Amino acid sequence: MKVNQSETSGKYLVTAAVLVAAMGYFVDIYDLLLFSIVRVPSLKDLGFTGQTLTDNGIFLLNIQMLGLLLGGIFWGILGDKKGRLYVLFGSIFLYSVANIANGFVHSIESYSICRFIAGFGLAGELGAGITLVAEIMPKEKRGYATTIVAAVGVSGAVVGFFVAELFNWRTSFFVGGGLGLSLLLLRIGVSESGMFGKAKKEQNKRGDFLSLYTNGKRLLKYGRSIVIGIPIWFVVAILITLSPEFGDVLGVKGNVNAGAAVAYCYGGLVLGDIASGLLSQYLKSRIKVVYTFLILTIISIAAYFLLHNISLALFYFICFSLGFSSGYWVVFMTIATEQFGTNIRATVTTTVPNFVRGSVVPVTLLFQYLMGLFHGSLIYAAAVVGILTIGLAFWALHYIQETFHKDLNYIEE
């Protein structure tokens, strides 16, 4: 049988793009969640304890998320102007160098600078990778490809936990930086999106971030794309990152390890992303799947708050359940990608997840304000923030467009 060379070459290019996007997201998540895993030991090593440890931990998390927010805009515009691959590998290089530098810090000031630069770099990889994969895959199979990227990617948090268990926090940052730099070797053999190449040749405004704000309908669509993902990071940034503090308040029988909580949560996220991605292919709907997983998230959060004096094993199982139920990140990202035209798709796909990550800043500030209002009650403060974020997600999802069968080869006017 004669093999079609162009067909074989095309399959190789698709496989290479999916592989690089998946491994890039793996290192992205490893580095992004590593801080949550090593927050306590690293800050103790720098001399912080008690409330100053918690406050500095939230400060560093917010600095990292601010970097993600600003980096999302920068890399998104660059992705539509210069190309998806330009951003994919540029962002990997920046966050890898920042994480290696993070292993050498000896003050909260230098720690915060490294977290900001790392966050800025981390902002570009996922959006560029998902945009590239979505544009080169047939529309009927986009969900499978993005599911692979997400499933491989979120497992980086689990690996981060085991690395942090085997090595000290400084070495853990070195490992993350080394993994990222090694990915640059995979650059050879990955080609740019054909849709981007076509858009580049045409006379249109590419990467016009402000165009998202000059049209009311487009702005609402953009805002809703962001809001449906915020509950995921409420779970990760509040319930999981601060799990040792919640464990004390809930009377968990044993010392809750933040790294273990992150590992269990992201183990659930891996399975949740696979399940939500495959379910969206089976149902031929992104929207129905997100509704389902938001309801599961409510059930898991209720269990987290209401079950007191439980064993450490059961608490970690609830962390796993929180991860699984909020594991609709892949579907959320695919929805955002499919909402907009080729000339601003990378801008949207890169800024949306980073605006969601950046929402951690107002979410944690609101959480801290409510703690003061409720006389230091972690439970009441977190419950109010959870109700608000999930309620907004349901509102946004009600108006969002179903995009499963949408053809992506068009320009946004």
Give an overview in words:
The longest helix is centred in the N-terminal third of the chain and has 41 residues, at 5-45. This protein is 78% helix and 0% strand. The protein has a single domain (5-187, 204-399), classed as MFS general substrate transporter like domains (Growth Hormone, Chain: A, Up-down Bundle). It is built from 17 helices and no strands. Helix 1 runs antiparallel to helix 11 and helix 8 (216-227) packs across helix 15. The protein is mostly helical and 413 residues long.
Keywords:
disordered N terminus; mainly alpha; 413 residues; Growth Hormone, Chain: A
> What structural class should be given to the helix and strand makeup?
mainly alpha
Radius of gyration: 20 Å
At CATH level 2, the architecture is Up-down Bundle
| Total beta strand runs | 0
Largest sheet: none
- Share of helix among residues? over 70%
Q: State which percent range the strand residues make up.
A: under 5%
Pattern of helices and strands:
HHHHHHHHHHHHHHHHH
- Mean pLDDT over the residues: 84
Can you identify the CATH class? Mainly Alpha
Low-pLDDT ranges: 1-10
